[in-house]
Amino acid sequence: MAGVNNRVKSTNDIELKDRLVAINRVTKVTKGGRTFSFAAIVVVGNEDGIVGWGLGKAGEVTTAIAKGVEAAKKNLIRVPVHKGTIPHEQLAKFGGAQVLIKPASHGTGVKAGGAMRAVLESVGITDVLAKSKGSSNPHNLVKATIAALGELRSPMTVAQNRGVSVEKVFKG
Asked: How far apart are CA 58 and CA 23, in angstroms?
């Protein structure tokens, strides 16, 4: 999924906001009848380049959300956000879901739906064009969006890897 080099080490001094992406009621049929439980997909982010996702399962909705938030805090990644948008176009796939995210000019807004919107807003992206292809399963959409964001490279990183100046990367 996301590269190892952009993992966030410590969450102690980061103010994270959580967003509930989807909640699913699941049923287990037993000899004594039906047992209901809940699965919640949660996205957390500081709206300044850090985002993570988690899945929580419990007998009550609030407990499932709390577990999802704790799980999300354990797999945070850092995303290069440049002037409210992403540095370059990126395509990613997870399971049956395929996502395409493109940078957009200032004032465009977040043109994305459902699960993708929650992830992009949590990371702090204000202008982006996004397209979901294939499955609309929220689990896979969140994972594919996080994978796409994890593969993004900042202009400074590209310039450093190539051994050239940042201006030369854009002229390229």
From this structure: 11
Which of these, 47, 53, 40, lies nearest to 2 by C-alpha position?
Answer: 53
d(CA 77, CA 93): 17
- Burial class from Cβ neighbours inside 10 Å (0-12, 13-18, 19+) for residue 119 reads buried
| CA–CA distance, 18 with 21 (Å, rounded to integer) | 9
According to DSSP, the residues that pair with 36 across neighbouring strands are 27
Q: Helices (H), strands (E): how many in the chain? A: 5, 8
Alpha-carbon distance of 78 to 112, in angstroms, equals 20
Quickly count: other Cβ atoms within 10 Å of residue 152's Cβ: 24
The CB density around residue 92, as the number of other CB atoms within 10 Å, is 21
Paired sense of beta strands 128-134 and 110-111, if any: parallel
**Which amino acid would we find at residue 76?**
L
Distance CA 51, CA 79 (A): 8
**pTM of the predicted protein model:** 0.87
CA 158-49-64 angle, to 5 degrees, is 135
Contact 45, 124 (CB under 8 A): yes
Interval 23-67: pLDDT, tens: 999 999 999 999 999 999 999 999 889 999 999 999 999 999 999
**DSSP for 152-166, written as a single string:** ---HHHHHHHHTS-H
